[in-house]
Amino acid sequence: MFPSKNEFVAKASAKVISDSNKIHDSHKIYATQRLVKFKEMEYNIPTSSYKVVFKEVMRIVNSKKYNVHYPFESRVVKKDDIYLSPAYKRDSAYIACHIYNKKDHRSYFSDLEKVFRDYGGRPHWGKMHTLSANDVQDLYPEFSRFMEHRAAQDPDGLFVTPYLQQLFGVKSIAATA
After folding, report:
1. Tell me: the pLDDT tens digits for 31-85?
2. Residues 146, 122 share a domain
3. The whole model's pTM is what?
4. Are 84 and 67 contained in the same domain?
């Protein structure tokens, strides 16, 4: 309601947040009640790039004076072998950014997404991003193998939503009917 007070409130509330580390199953740490609605973008980057990426993100946020009242959230995960996993074949760090749901997120998220992408960032699939089918093919080495499996399991594209059409470059039966 009072954007000019964001910086003061952020600094005051930061003083009461503990600087803690938690190691546990993710559903026991990250599943919290959210009383304020927000938009969120979260990207996965190689752990080796985390420090430089986070420094660049902070430089952008501070230099452009984005009026955002949410902290960044970071976490690390071990590599896996799931074709479209953001952590496919690389130990990874995630950086999540948030903005109040009634604020325009486009410029803020765009600036941060560019940094994430410059370092091979892959998005959290359940959060906001701007990837196209070409981007997905470039970021995921096993994309063609995934698409072969997808086509074998759903040859008519019955389960292909408009979102998946954008990401995979395929049509659904609803789109062709």
Report:
1. 777 778 899 999 999 999 999 999 999 999 999 988 887 889 999 999 999 999 9
2. no
3. 0.82
4. yes
Give whole-number Cα distances, 94 to 77, 91, 155, in Å. 8, 10, 33
Query: Which residue reads 């009383």 in tokens?
Result: 35
- Are 115 and 29 part of one and the same domain? yes
- 123 and 91 belong to one structural domain: yes
Sign of the torsion formed by the C-alpha atoms of 48, 54, 55 and 57: positive
Contact 79, 91 (CB under 8 A): yes
**Nearest by Cα to 48 from 91, 95, 97, 96:** 91
Domain count, the chain: 2
Instruction: Indicate if 79 and 138 belong to the same structural domain.
Output: no
d(CA 18, CA 30): 16
8-state DSSP, 62: H
Full domain range(s) for residue 148: 131-177
Q: Give residue for tokens 């892959």.
A: 122
